[in-house]
Amino acid sequence: MPDYEIYSLGDFVLQRGATLRDAKLAYKTFGKLNAKKDNVIVFPTWYSGQHVDNEWLIGKGMTLDPAKYFIIIPNMFGNGLSSSPSNTPEPYNKSRFPQVTAYDNVRAQHQLVTEKFGVKKLKLVVGWSMGALQTFHWGAMYPDMVERIAPFCGSAKCSRHNFVFLEGVKAALTADSAWNNGWYDDKPEKGLRAMARVYAGWGFSQAFYRQELDLKALGHSSLEDFLVSFWEGFFLPKDANNLLTMLWTWQNGDISDNELYKGDFKKALKAVKAKAFVMPSRTDLYFPPEDSEFEVANMPNAKFLPFESVWGHFAGGPGTSPNDVKFLDGKLKELLAS
Amino acid sequence: MPDYEIYSLGDFVLQRGATLRDAKLAYKTFGKLNAKKDNVIVFPTWYSGQHVDNEWLIGKGMTLDPAKYFIIIPNMFGNGLSSSPSNTPEPYNKSRFPQVTAYDNVRAQHQLVTEKFGVKKLKLVVGWSMGALQTFHWGAMYPDMVERIAPFCGSAKCSRHNFVFLEGVKAALTADSAWNNGWYDDKPEKGLRAMARVYAGWGFSQAFYRQELDLKALGHSSLEDFLVSFWEGFFLPKDANNLLTMLWTWQNGDISDNELYKGDFKKALKAVKAKAFVMPSRTDLYFPPEDSEFEVANMPNAKFLPFESVWGHFAGGPGTSPNDVKFLDGKLKELLAS
Question: How many CB atoms within 10 Å of residue A298?
Answer without folding.
Answer: 16
